[in-house]
Amino acid sequence: MSTPNLSSLPAVERAQLRDGVQAALVAFGSGFVHHRDNDALRTRLASSALPLQDFYRQLLRLTYRLIFLLVAQDRDLLLDPAASPAAKARFAQLCATKRLRALAERNQAEAQSDSWQALRLFMQQLDRGCPDAALPALGGFLWGQTDLDGRRVAQALPDLDTAHLSDEHLGSALDALCRSVHWASVQADELGSVYEALMERVPRLHGDKFELTTAAGNERKTTGSYYTPDPLVQRLLDSALDPVVDDACQTADPERAILGLKVLDPACGSGHFVVAAARRLAQRLARVRSSDTEPSPSQVQRALRDVIRHCIYGVDINPMAVELCKLALWMQTGEPSQMLAALDPHLQCGNALLGVTAELLDKRDTQGLLVGIPDAAFMALAGDDKAVASVSRKRNKAARRQQPPFLANNQPLDPASQSTSGPWRPQPHNAQLPALACTDVVEADYVNSAAYLQAKRLADAWCAAFVGLKVAGAPALTNAEFLGLHQGHALSAATRAEVARLAAQYQFFHWHLAFPHQFDVIIGNPPYLNQLEAATALNRRAASLLRLRSDGVVGGFADVASAFLSVQSGLVAPGGALALIVPQSFLVAADAAPIRQQLATRLRLDGLWVSNAHAFASASVFTCACSFRRLPQSTAAQLARWVGAKADPVAPLELNTADLRNRLSWSPLFADTLGIPYVKLDISATIADWATATADFRDQYYGLDTFLVDEIGADDSAYPPVVTTGLIDLARNRWGQRSTQILKRHWAAPRVNRAAMLATGELGDWITQRLTPKVLVATQTKVLEVFCDAGGRLLPSVPLLTVQPRPGFDVWAVGAALASPAVCAWAAAQYAGAALAVGALKLSATQVAGLPLPTVGGPAWAQAVDLFKLAHAAATDQGRLIRLVAFGSAALQCYGLEPADQAQVLKWWRHRLGQPRDQVTKVADSMAD
After folding, report:
1. How many CA atoms, within 13 angstroms, populate the side-chain half-sphere of residue 602?
2. To 5 degrees, how large is the angle CA 543–CA 544–CA 549?
3. Beta 691-695 vs 774-778: how paired, if at all?
4. CB contact at 8 A, 120 and 130
5. Spatial distance between the Cα atoms of 242 and 238, rounded to a whole number of angstroms
6. Mind listing the pLDDT tens digit for each residue in 389-399?
C-alpha cells in the first residue's frame, strides 16, 4: 500500500496536532522548571549557562521522542518482529502505547516522578536496543547516549535527562498529545511541518511558568526555514527528477540505473523533498521490476525501501531537522529492524555552504608549491588585532615559500595516521561507495579510517584559519601549522582544540569527504537569509570563507539561498539536474549576477517557476525556482515555465543559452507572465551619458535627526523641504499636501535647518551637492515616478534616487528620458522581482544610470520633453494625467518601436499609471528605520 500523502490528514486534525504539540511543550517546560528537585536546572537557566532557546530545543526533542513512540507503536514499527514470544510479551507489558495513554488519562496531581523515571529508562533502551523486550536499537542523535560524569546521558536531552518531572506535568503533556489526533494516520512530513511552524515560537519564562509566544527574531526567521507546499514539490520533481529517471529507464539495465541514482536535498529540513523524491523513485522502480504500469502496493513498498537505502541523501545545519528527516524516511520503510543510525551516512548534519573542496586543498602556485591556506584568510576583520593579523599573514607567506617546513615544535601524529603517506584524496566522481543496504561496516570503516580522519583534520584546519580570531594569545594557525599537518605532523594541543571548537561552531561540511561522489539530482528549498538584515546576515568571517569556496562569486549582499545554487552547481553529475527554490530577487539582484553567470556556464537552464503571490505561509518573500541540467551546451533551448502557488504551466520560452551568460538580469524570462510588454531597446547609449545617478544611504538618513522641523511657510533656502518616496508621483511633488514618515515620526511639512546642519560639518557637503537642479526617482512604484526639481530646492531622503544632469544637459530632457513608457516597460521586464510587491519597480542608482536613451532626437524628442514639462505645471491631477498621456505617446515615437508595439506599451503604461498609489511606498519610506 502506497504511503498516504500529507493531504490525507484532515485540516481540523492538523490544527489539533499543532495545538496539542504546543500544549505538550508548555506542560513539559513548566514541569521541569517547577519541580522542587531541579535547582541545578533553574540555576543554569537563571545564569544563562543554559540559554532559554537551548532549553526549548531540548523540550522539542523530548516531545518528538514521544511523538515518535506514539506513531511507531500505533503502526507496529517499533516491535522487533524477529524477537522471541517472551520478549514480545514483555514489550506488550512494558512498552505499549496504552501504558503512556493510561498515564495521560490518570494525569496524577502529585509531585512524584515515578512515571517520568520509568519513561526515561525506557527511552534509554532505544539507543542500543533491548532484545529482552523486543526493542530495536535506533541510535542517532535523537536517541543516542553519551558519557557525562560517569553516567549515560541522552545527547539530545543533556539537561532534561538528569532532571525530574512530576507525574502531573508528564500526564498533562501526554494528554495534550494523545487527545490531539489519531497517530496512525499522521505522516512524517506533517510532523516536519509542525516542527518548522514551532520554530516561529519564542520561549518565555515568568517565574516557574513556561510560555511560547510569537515574536520577531524567532528561529524560523533567523534560519529561513519554511515548509514547501506539496504542489511545488511535485512540480520540481517533474522538472528535475523525472527527466533523469527517464534517461535511467532507457539504459540496458534500468533497475540498476535507478538504484544507482543519487538524489540530494542540501537543506533537507524535516525531509519533505527527499520523502517525495523517494516515493516517486519507488513508483518508477516498481514499474520497471514488475513491467506493470500499476505495480502492487507491496511491490512499491519493497522498491521504497531499496530507494531509501541506495538513492536518498540529505544535509541540514539543524541536528533535530536531520533526525526528523531520518524519522520520515524510517517511517516510509516500514521496517522495525532498520536503525535510524543506519541512515547516518546518507543524512548528515552540517553547514552545506561552509567547507573546503579537494581542489582548494590541492591548489598550487605558479612555482608548483602548495598554496595551503590563502593569505586572504588573514585579513583583519571586526574583533581582530590588525598587528596580529599582519604578522600571521607574513608568517603564512613565509611558510609557503619554505616547503617542506622544518618545524621543531611539531609532534608526530598517532601511529594510525603514520600509514598515510599524503593527504586523502576523494574517489573519482564516477566511483561509488558501496550501497547502504549492505555496508554498515564499510561506511563505519570509511569514516574512522586514518586517511579520512587525516583529511578531515586538514579540511577543518584550512577553514578554521578563516574564521578564527587574530588576536594575541590565540592559537597559531597559518601555513606553518597547516603544511606541517599536511606532511604528517601534529598540531599543538591548543591549536587542535581551537580547530575542533571552530569546526563545531561553524559546522564545517566538506562535500568531497562526506560524499565522495557527485549527485544526479539536487533539489530542495534552502533557507532565505537576507544579507541586508542583521538577524540573518552571515558574519564576515563566514562570508570570506564562502566567497573562496564558491570561486569568488558569492559576495556582497547575495541571499544565502543563491549561494546554495553556486555551491551545488559544482556537485551535479553529468546528465544530472539541479532545482532549488530561491527568492525571486535572485533573478535580478546585482549581487547575484556572478552566480547567475557561473550557473549559465556550468549548466543549462531548463525550467523556471515564479510565484506572483506569496507561496509560503508566514514568509513575505516572493519566490522562484530555477531548474538546470548538466548537459552539453547548445545555443538554443526551450525553457519550461510555471507560475503561481500551484505551479500552473504557461507557454515555454525559446532561450539562447549563450546569451543567458551575459544577461544583466534573468527577469525578462518571466516578465510576460506579469503582463509586461516586450520591448527591445538600443542600450548603446544610456542615462549615464547625460547624468549621474546616486543613492544616499543610512548615514544621510539618520543625519537628518535633530535638524528636522515641521513648517509649511519657512524660507526654502534656509529650510529646504525634505521629500520622500511617498511624496513623489510622476511629474508631481506632494510635499505639504500629503504627510510622510521620517525617523519613525509623521511630518506634515518636513524641512531641514540648513544653517544648523552646515555648522556641524558632517553633512554640509552632502546638502550642498543635493540642493542643485536634479531629477528625483521614487522606488517601489507601478511606473518610474520621476519629478524634476529644476530649481534645486528639495532635499531627497532615503530611498529616493538623485539623478543630476552632466554639464550641458537639460534636467527636463533627463527626466523625460527616465519617465518614457518605453523605458518603463524595458525596466519592468529587466528588473521584475526586485520590489516588495509584484508588479512594482525597484531600481538601484546603477540600474537607473543604465537605462536606455531615445534613439530619435530633433523636433519629435523636443515635443516629448515640452509635454513632460507641461505635466509638471498642471494645476490639477486630471490635467497632469492628460498631459502625461500625450507625453507618453510622443516619447514612444523616439525609441524605434513599431506602431503596434507603441500602442501596446502605451496601453500598459496608462493602465499602471491610473492605478491607486501602491501602499508599498509607505514601506519604502520606513525602510531605513
Report:
1. 23
2. 95
3. unpaired
4. no
5. 5
6. 999 999 999 99
